[in-house]
Design brief:
It contains nine helices and two strands; from the N terminus they run ααααββααααα. With 187 residues, the protein is an all-alpha fold. The protein folds into two domains: 48 residues, no CATH class; 119 residues, Cytochrome Bc1 Complex, Chain D, domain 2, CATH 1.10.760.10. Strands 1-2 form a two-stranded antiparallel sheet. A hairpin with a 2-residue loop joins strand 1 and strand 2. The chain is elongated, with a radius of gyration of 25 Å. Bound molecules: heme C.
């Protein structure tokens, strides 16, 4: 682009027609094609693994359930991303950073902030297990009453991760002693 602008300026000054290839530079420029090799990366591959938590644009666009938590104005019932250990770990981390100071580490609403809050208190999230997954996603995304939006702190994938972790907290509260699965590393 840096070279294109003076070149275009010069052409405009001299009154010449601008050749169409100037506008096709992205198509014509040097670039890697799928599965090509590259000396730039240590593993010799030009194709890179997307950063963790990346959601392909095609998945979010045209998929309002994923990007907004609502379909036809109604909150989606289930979490629309794959819930696995990695997602729950991300959710636990983000919940601890962004939500726990108000809603409590266990999600039960017991926190120092809650004890000292003058306005409406952060509710226990454990009592809300009958609410659809989209309800939690919407509360995080848009805010809820006096609670602000946390869409600046958490991207789409991280918000669903937090919803998944809130579901895990809710499930843990209701589980009878001894019914929890034994973690892999303790087997
Ligand atoms: C600064 C304190 C604070 C933080 C941080 C916070 N919340 Fe809240 N949250 C509240 C308060 C207070 C309410 C109740 C708002 C009201 O009723 O006006 C609330 C309401 C909610 C509700 C709606 C409850 C209902 O009755 O349906 C959900 C869901 C929720 N929070 C989830 C979260 C999650 C998840 C996070 C982290 C991403 C979070 N909150 C972070 C204070 C907080």
């Amino acid at each position: 682009m840096r070279r294109l602008i003076p070149a275009l300026g010069l052409l405009a000054l001299t009154g010449c027609d601008v050749p169409s290839e100037f506008f096709q530079r992205m198509e014509n420029q040097a670039k890697y094609e799928y599965y090509e090799s590259s000396e730039f990366w240590a593993d010799g591959r030009a194709m890179r693994t997307p950063p963790e938590g990346t959601i392909p644009r095609e998945k979010a666009v045209g998929n309002p359930g994923l990007s907004t938590g609502r379909v036809n104005g109604q909150p989606v019932a289930a979490i629309p991303v794959q819930v696995d250990k990695a997602l729950l770990q991300m959710g636990q981390k983000k919940y601890s950073i962004v939500c726990a100071q108000c809603h409590g580490v266990l999600g039960d609403g017991n926190s120092i902030v809650a004890e000292n809050m003058g306005l409406r208190l952060p509710p226990s999230l454990l009592e809300l297990s009958n609410r659809p997954a989209g309800h939690f996603f919407n509360a995080i995304t848009e805010g809820y009453g006096v609670m602000p939006s946390f869409s600046g702190e958490l991207n789409t994938q991280e918000r669903w991760a937090v919803v998944a972790y809130v579901r895990a907290l809710q499930a843990a509260r209701g589980a009878a002693a001894g019914t929890q699965p034994v973690p892999q590393e303790n087997r």
